[in-house]
Structures are given as C-alpha cells and as structure tokens.
Specification:
CATH class of the largest domain in chain A: Alpha Beta
Number of helices of chain A: 16
Oligomer: heterodimer
Shape of chain B: flat
Structural class of chain B: mainly alpha
Distance between the termini of chain B: 10 Å
Largest interface: A-B, 57 and 50 residues
Helix content of chain A: 25-40%
Chain lengths: ~525, ~300
C-alpha cells in the first residue's frame, strides 16, 4: 500500500514538473480598446502602433532612447545632394508566411497606402518630397516612381528635395509594410489573418477581449525570450490596475488618480517604473474665440497666475514633470536654458491692470474646458484667486472636446496635451503655433515666430536648424503664446521578475527583449 | 391567436423603425465629429480627413444617409465600422450580442428561481424571522445600485480573498460576479412581488377549501396558490427584462465583458455611428420580442386569457 502510494505520488509530482516545464512564458499586457487595424500603415492611433511594434517590421525603428536605428536595413547610403537613398536589406528576413522579405515589398506596400481608397494616415506628409508621391496621393498616378527595387535586397528612394526628417519618418510604424499577398487590394482588409514580419506572429483576436501573439521562431534578429503576448483589452484604467493587483496582468499604466496610493503602497511602490514621454500638457488661449487673449499682457497675466508646479506635483501627483517651454526634454531641439515665467500672482495682477482690467474689473467671464475636472478646477481656482476674474469650468465629452478644438470656435481657454509622432520640435512649435494651421488651436499668429519656424524647417544643417527652432520657441514663450503645464511621463507598474520592459518617448518599445 | 401575432409583428416593425430613426437622429445630433475622433489627438492632413469623410458617406445630406442606412439594414447589412477598419459592424455586434445573451439569461433565470423560492417561503412563513429577514435583505438589494454592488463584490471576492477574477471574460469564473451583480436587484424586486402575490392568493376561498380537504401544504402552495400568483409576477418579469438589458451597459463596462453593452458604450464614445445603431436596434428588438413572449405566456399561465382576432 505504501509503495503504491509513493508511486502515485511520484507520478503526480513528475507530471506536475512536466507541466511546469512546458508552461509557456506569457506577458499579459492591457490595452484600452481594440486596435483600429492590424495594418501598421493605416494606424490612426497610438494603440495600433503599440501592437504593430511586435507584429510588424520596417526599414528603421526607434530604440529605447528614441534614436533611429536600422531594422531591416543592413546598411544604407545617401547621395551628396541628399536626394537619393539606397538601402541594403537583411537577407535572412522572412514574413510570417515564410516568404522572404524583399525590396519590392516596400514599393508595393507604400503604393497601397498611397491609394486614395485606403486613406492611410501617413499618406500626406512623408510623401510630399518623394518623387511621384504627391501625384499618386492626388490620384493622378498609379505608380510611386521615386521608389525602385534594384534587386531583391536593394531599395532606392529618390526625393524631390532634401528631407532631414526622412529616416525618422521611416522609423514610425505607420511607414512599415505588410506582404501584399496577405491583404485585399484597395481595401483595409486581410485576406485571412494578419501577417507581419516582426518578432511575434498573430495567433488570435477576440474583439473586445484579447489579442494573442506568439514568438516568431524565424525572426531574423533571433527568437524573442517570451513565448506569448496576451493583450487584454481593458478600457477602464482603474479596472486594469485592480487586475494587476489581483495578479491578472503583468504590466499596467498607472492612472494619475491612483498614483498617490500606488506610490505610498509598500509593495506596489517598489514596482513603479517612470519613462519620459513626448507630450506637452498645456493651457491654450484661443484668440479668435475670446477677444482679450489677443493682448499679450492678458496672456502673460494668466501665465503668471497659474501655479504650474502645484498642478504637476499635487493635482497630477507627479504624472507630469515641470515644463519650461514647448519642446520636452530628450527631443534634440529641447532648449535646456529656457526658463518659463514663474508663478507670480503680484506680477499677474499688474499685467492685467496694465491691460485695462485692474483687480479683474470689467474682465468678461471666461470658461475653461478640460477633460480632467481636477486640472480644470485647480486652474480656475488659481485664476479666480489671483486675478479676481470669473472663471467657470466645463468638462466636455472627449469627442465633443476634440471637434471643438479643431473647429477653433468652441473653447476660449482649454487644457490639452499635444503628443509627438516624430521626435522633433516641429511637432510643438510648428504644429501648435504656426499661423493658420488647423492644429493651431489657440489661433495664435506672430510673424516673428513664423519667420523663425520657416528658417528652422528649411535649414539642412542640424545645428542652424536647432538654433532657429529655439529662437521661435523663445519668442513664443516671451509672447505667452500658450501656457505649458507639464511634460507627461509614462508611469507603469511592472511585476517583479519581468526584465527588459522599456518605453521610449512614444511608448513601450517592442517586447522582443522582454524576459521573465 | 394568429391574427394577434400578425398585428403585433406589424407593431414591432413600426417600433423598430421609430427606434432606428431616433437612434440615427441622436447620433447625428450629438456634437463630435467621428472623422476627427478617428484622427485622435494627432495631426492628420486635411486632405486625409476629407478622404475619410467621403469614404464613410458622411459628406452626403443626413436624410439621404438615413434612408441609405435603412435600406442596407433591411438587407441585413449594417455597414462597416468607422473605428475598426475593414470590419463589418455585424462582426463586432453579433458575437457581442451572443455573449450578452448567454450571461444575461443566466442572471435572469438565477434571479427568477431564487426570487420564487424566497417569495413563496416568505409567504408560507408569513411574519416569521425568515419572512422578515428575507424581505429586509430584498430591501437592501433593491436599494443598492449596480455599480456600488459590483465594486463591493470585486473588493471582497477578488482583491481581498482572491477567489474570483476582477474583470474579463476568459473563463466561466469571470462571469460569476457580473451575474450576481445583475441578478440581485431583479431578484429582490421579484421576491417581494412573489410574496405579496402569494399572500393575496393564500387568503382566497379555494385555497382554504383545498386545505380543508386535507391537501398537503406543499401541494397547496405549489398546485393551487403559485399558479394563480404567477400572473402579476409575469408582468413584473416582462419589465425586469428591460432592466436587465439596460444593466448590460453598466455591468459589462465595470467587469470588462465584451458584450453588446460595452461595445455600445465604446462605440458611442468613439462616434462609431453604425455600431451604435446596430447595438441599439438589436437591444430594442430583444426587448420587444421578449415582451411579446411574456404576453403570449399570459395565455399559457391563465387559461381565461384569450387573444381574439377582433
């Protein structure tokens, strides 16, 4: 009897060990909704890019320091005039369907994105300087003549004018391509399941529930460490946090509201990881919507009246780092010597009085629109107390809010965040302040700023260009064009034992190097 | 009966048309541009924005959009999602509706079974500790909003004791807390209803006669009283189905169940009009059809009710 018991016990133990050994390593990672598409070039939101980083592959990519590094490209050269790029591709790389990745795939892939019926997000900008790009985007040509495959592993791209940002643009996942046999021509659909060439291959997608990817054994840079990624689709940030605490997720972004609790929790506090993010949180003052904002003194008064440090540290619990200007740190054109106007209620009142509103008298009632009630209320309270003006907070629904920003005719004073897709000052200084742009939500217009921006955009010499960007930023800040509140940070909880999780300025990088 | 059903079916079509019209109007009257939302907070070229508008037919006059939509919907084509490229709406809404159907039916059955048991027992032991205790619990159950109950359940059973998952829909265990959350209020309401209805019936002459004949107490309750007490209860169940359906929006969002409620909420926030419309129509159809079933059941439960053809 005892012998029998022992045999059974050992068998059970052995079986248990066997199961443990065969147990695949899984990374359970939350995303807030279904990705809009699994095709990288059709990405309209950052979420698609996050999945694309693991599923797909491109010529270049951004590493954990947000530097552009060659990916499928083995070596490359640029002609002296800066107009012709020649890329040599790795020879061992294959798509998940087993076919070799060749130069022609990029020509066909980009032509697909440029076709009018797809309306890919990237279709506008990166192509404006590629030979044949604008014609194809306009529907006047069916071939992208500036891109030619000179053999299986040599790709040549010809530009109409020098583009200092070209490699940066190629590194964004929306410029990555998919094998043309896997997609329906002219339609945003897969023939069967998504096919890529990245470190992980597609396994399954249950809409609203989960996306599963598994390690690509044939990945040209070597098989990833973990066996599977489970993207759990969890729209609510606090639900995701609760799931992390209950052990159902391995990584989670910490919502600002929970940050104080998480930081002070002895167990969770040790699992926090901070990463810089390319996002500026700011207060915009819409000049076409609210007349007094056309006066620089009024804008400066608002600037001085808002205690930005308190908002970053106490209201946002450190989710934002203090902002000194428009361009966040780690962006090449960031100006480390720039100092923002300090919090100075005294000076604020003086400026407002100079503008004709002593003690806030006669100043029209103003509304501040903010998606975050706490940030809106904090700013409103500071403006009321320090300027003596009437301020009301409105918290619009997100869709309504964004439409109103783009139409320029709804919000006078608004708190918003502007996020980069390439690490360049252009994202903030140009897109937010250049006269007449749709994305210039403040309807700010200053010839001096525009002139410096024009100079910065046309300079090929990086140093001269950077100097011009900083000049533009400085003029705009002196003019109180807008009020920077903080530079956002990515804040994650990462389960102990998971190594190699990293985020660059845009978000988490590929999980190819993650292990547990 | 057949004539009655035909008339009711015509009513159903008219109601669905009205629902489609109202839902369509609501999506178009809500501020917020779906195309702008597709772009998110990124800077998309104006030409691309225009191209998207044309692709989704949003550049046409609104009445044209409505009849175009209606025509396709009648042929079972709810269009393509604005948000999920290349995904037909039916692929998003169909599976979601099945998930919702499954767990909500379980929740409703659970509520009915428990409520019948509690209500009958409370009536049978009128004014005892059991009666008072059960009805007190029911009162608490009626007063607790779904979102409070859900949060309490998660804190106790998931975070404190680690018995059940916080959220998601991977295994049957994931559905325990949502089902309980959704079942509690209808169950509480229904048990009070059953009790009251039973108490009425128990005082009737024919029950006294049955008892006087020496029929066993179980048989009296089961055969003589319950059948007659069910009629008012059935009415309440019909109303509760509507409540359970709308509960899907809150409970599925809290527990992150990829059912039609959550799909609907997400679609509203993303201005994914075709998905919003399809989800609304499916839920409305579900409610109308179940109401019809309840009406037909009246005739089954109470032989006195006949639906004439006149």
């Amino acid at each position: 009897m005892t012998i029998l018991t022992r045999i059974v016990a050992s068998l059970i133990l052995l079986a248990g060990l066997g199961i443990a050994a065969a147990q695949p390593t899984v990374l359970r990672y939350p995303i807030t909704s279904n990705p809009a598409t699994f095709e990288p070039g059709l990405a309209k939101e950052l979420l698609t890019a996050e999945v694309a980083l693991n599923l797909h592959v491109g010529l270049f990519t951004y590493d954990a320091d947000t530097s552009v590094v060659p990916y499928l490209v083995r070596s490359y050269g640029v002609s002296d005039d800066g107009l012709t790029y020649t890329f040599e591709l790795h020879e061992g790389a294959t798509w998940h369907n087993g076919r070799a990745i060749v130069a022609q795939d990029f020509k066909l892939g980009w032509e697909r994105y440029l076709g009018a019926s797809l309306g890919a997000q990237t279709a506008g900008d990166p192509w404006r300087l590629v030979v044949g790009g604008p014609a194809m985007f306009a529907g006047d040509a069916s071939e992208l003549t500036g891109v030619q495959a000179l053999g299986d592993h040599t790709l040549e791209v010809t530009l109409t004018g020098p583009n200092p940002k070209f490699l940066q643009e190629l590194a964004v996942p929306s410029m990555w391509v998919v094998p043309s046999e896997a997609v329906v021509p002219g339609e945003p659909r897969w023939v069967d399941a998504p096919v890529g060439g990245g470190p992980f291959r597609f396994v399954s997608w249950q809409p609203g529930s989960m996306i599963v990817l598994e390690a690509n054994d044939d990945f040209f840079l070597g098989r990833p460490e973990i066996d599977r990624i489970e993207y759990h689709i969890v729209p609510d940030a606090s639900t995701a946090l609760a799931q992390y605490e209950a052990g159902e997720l391995d990584v989670v972004a910490v919502p600002p509201a929970a940050l104080a609790r998480v930081t002070n929790d002895p167990r969770l506090g040790a699992e926090i990881q901070y990463f810089t993010r390319a996002q500026l949180q700011y207060v915009g003052m819409n000049q076409s919507q609210f007349e007094p904002f056309r006066d620089a003194r009024v804008r400066a008064a608002f600037f001085h009246a808002i205690d930005r440090d308190t908002i970053a540290e106490r209201v946002q619990n450190g989710a934002w780092a203090n902002a000194t200007g428009l361009v966040p740190p780690h962006i090449p054109q960031h100006d480390p010597d720039l100092a923002a106007r300090p919090y100075d209620p005294e000076r604020a009142r003086e400026l407002l009085a100079d503008a004709g509103y002593p003690g806030g008298q006669g100043f029209p009632r103003v509304e501040i629109a903010s998606l975050s009630a706490t940030v809106g209320e904090a700013i409103a309270a500071m403006l009321r107390a320090n300027l003596g003006i009437a301020v009301e907070v409105i918290q619009p629904e997100r869709g309504d809010y964004i439409s109103g920003l783009w139409s320029h005719d709804r919000w006078s004073l608004f708190a918003f965040g502007w996020t980069a897709d390439t690490p360049s000052a252009s994202v903030w200084t140009y897109e937010m302040l250049y006269c007449g742009l749709d994305s210039n939500f403040s309807t700010y217009c200053n010839e001096e700023v525009d002139r410096a921006i024009d100079l910065a955009r046309s300079h090929l010499d990086p140093e001269a260009s950077t100097a011009a960007w900083r000049e533009a930023e400085r003029i705009a800040m002196d003019d109180a064009a807008l009020i920077p509140l903080g530079y956002s940070r990515f804040i994650y909880l990462v389960r102990p034992g998971i190594e190699g999780f990293a985020a660059n300025l845009f978000g988490p990088v590929s999980f190819a190097d993650v292990s547990r | 009966m057949a004539g009655y059903l035909v008339r009711r079916s015509l009513f159903i079509l008219a109601t669905l048309f009205a629902v489609a019209f109202l839902a369509f109007a609501a999506t178009r009257l809500t501020p917020g541009d779906p195309v702008r939302l597709m772009a998110g907070d990124r800077n998309v070229a104006p030409e691309v924005i225009e191209a998207w508008r044309v692709r989704y037919g949003l550049d046409r006059p609104i009445p044209v959009q409505f009849f175009y939509y209606l025509g396709n919907a009648l042929r079972g084509d709810f269009g393509m999602s604005y948000q999920y490229l290349g995904t037909p709406v039916i692929d998003l809404v169909g599976p979601a509706a099945l998930i919702t159907l499954q767990w909500e039916v379980v929740a409703l059955l659970l509520a009915i079974v428990v409520a019948l048991f509690l209500g009958v027992m409370a009536a049978a032991r009128h004014n005892t500790v059991f009666d008072n205790g059960a009805m007190f619990l029911a009162l608490i159950g009626i007063s607790l909003p779904d979102f409070v109950l859900a949060t309490l359940l998660v804190i106790v059973f998931s975070l404190q004791f680690d018995w059940l998952p916080v959220a998601g829909a991977g295994t049957p265990a994931h559905f325990v807390l949502p089902i309980v959350t959704l079942a509690v209020r209808p169950c509480a309401l229904l048990s009070r209803m059953v009790r009251a209805s039973m108490l009425d019936v128990i005082r009737e002459d024919y029950v006294r006669t049955a008892r006087a004949k020496g029929v066993g107490e179980w048989h009296v309750l089961h055969r003589h009283a319950l059948g007659n007490a069910l009629l008012p209860v059935l009415t309440v169940i019909g109303i509760l189905i509507g409540r359970v359906l709308s509960g899907a929006f809150i409970v599925e969002t809290i527990f992150n169940i990829p059912g039609i409620g959550r799909v609907g909420v997400t679609a509203v926030l993303q201005r994914d009009y075709p998905v919003v419309l399809a989800a609304t129509l499916i839920l409305a159809a579900a409610f109308i059809v179940t109401t019809l079933i309840v009406d037909v059941l009246y005739a089954v439960v109470d032989p006195r009710i006949r639906y004439g053809s006149g």
